[in-house]
Fold this sequence. Notes:
Chain A is α/β, with parallel strands linked by helices. Chain A is 35% helix and 24% strand.
Amino acid sequence: MGVLLEIDGLKTQFFTSAGTVKAVDGVSYTVDEGETVAVVGESGCGKSVTAMSILRLIPWPPGKITEGVIRFAGRDLLQLPEDEMRDVRGKDISMIFQEPMTSLNPVLTIGLQLTETMLTHTSATENEARKRAVELLDMVGIAEPERRLAQYPHHLSGGMRQRVMIAMALACEPKLIIADEPTTALDVTIQAQILELMKNLTRDLGVAMIIITHNLGVVARYSDRVNVMYAGKIIEYGSAADIYYRPHHPYTLALLKSVPRMDQPRQAKLDPVEGQPPDLTMLDGGCAFRPRCRYATDECAKGLPPLENVGSGHFTACFQKDKLVSSLQEAS
Amino acid sequence: MLNTSEIEVESDFEELSEKRPFFQVFFELIRKQPLGAAGGGIVVLMILMAIFAELLTVFDPELNSLEHMLMPPDDTFWLGTDQFGRDLLTRIIYGARTALLVGFTCAIVGATLGLVLGVASAYFGGMFDLIVQRIVDVVMAFPLIILALAVVATLGPGTQNVIIAITIPFVPQCARVVRSNALAIREIPYVDAARALGFSDMRIILRHMVPNVMAPYLIMLTSFLGQAILLEASLSYLGMGVQEPTPAWGLMLQGGAEEFAESAPWVAIWPGIAISLAVFGFNLFGDSVRDTLDPKLRSR
């Protein structure tokens, strides 16, 4: 399958009074057609900013995409005029947001919000759009879709609202869906349902998806490839299995250890990632994870570790990866 | 088990949105908001007066009649006549037309322009917001009446110019209040979601943001109604507003108060009462609209 989205050397910076925040600092990754790619990292590492950059929704001031290429289906999105970009949003690339409670407009009916996208981007008539809206609601598993069209968001539960958001995202048959922590605000049982639904729908419709999350459990089950981000950079990427079973970066390892696992005894202590993410206005030349890394040596301060191939399609950016791998092997 | 409870919840919803007979809603309104209902009553009375002016009186509001000059209230002229022999009751009834025309036009146009300006200012932010807000600051630095006087002085008197003069100071007032509400709404994800769905700025402002700031808009609108009527009366009283022979309360007050305050007090008293009552009614009504729409101010 061909490459659908190619991000190359993307840099997004926020110019604040406290200094320039390099929220996204030279990120490159690709998404193939129909593929699900996860972007993982803790809060403030630049996951969402990367996603907003793809849609060019970074508010200026203070944010700006300063460098890079975002090639989508053959076009460089960063070079498109604003009106063509508006056509891409919602039609070719749509987005599912983190907060289903606040991502739907409280004063407009579900039907109105669902059909509006179709009426804006396609030549559908009001009737066709309504019909399709019913189909979409049915597809995302909402009972009595006709009745829901006339209801307002406050009539629906959080899980149902997220289903409506998914229906909205699918309305114009996009090629790519960006899901920005789609399940963070939902409770655990609903999370699984929503993820399962998204996985099935994207597979059946052949839609590519970027899932932004900090939950590695989500990653393991629902994504083909994973990008781990830290301080605005991708520090490791590879297949979901590579990341989960053969992490080569201490940060990835720390993230994995910080999640409770079913296959470990209940008494096993969780191992949180110590410390805070670095202040993005004052990064020095060295590895950004260095202060929190238990494998760090003086070497790490000298320069940025480059992304290096450690297996087929598995890259990592760490000077100490050999030390890490051997210590892991000893432990097991 | 789960199913039955769901059904109960649903039926509660149905009950809430069920249509009740009009009189029942009406009485409940009077019980919950007696002052607002009284204000609303005055407003309705004024509107009826304005609409059915021709049916309510047999006299001509503009025709002079020298043999009936300055007659005190009696059987024929219930409220007396003015210095040109015109029936005061007739002129007050017709004056409601002027008051309502000016009041509603200024309030609706002023508040609506302010609404759009305020939301746009909050939505675009940055330089646009800065410039709009500085202009708003400048306009709001003037007291309402001074600004209105300045506009009339430039445009000249007359009903149409009075409307323009009163509308202009209303726009920034409403824009300021709406902007502060819209700023909060701008930060709620559905605005970003709308942008991510590829809607144009105009569409997001008008369709997605404006309906969410309806509460402050309606509050400003109703408070403008009373203010506009008072301002129109003030301008007319100062001779800068509606011109003779058009019946307008401020104008009648001026004609009566200056020369006949002692010899024929009724000439000034009745239009004065009409102005106070109208402003009082609109303000009561506006307050109850505010109480209903703004949960923070709801009676404890």
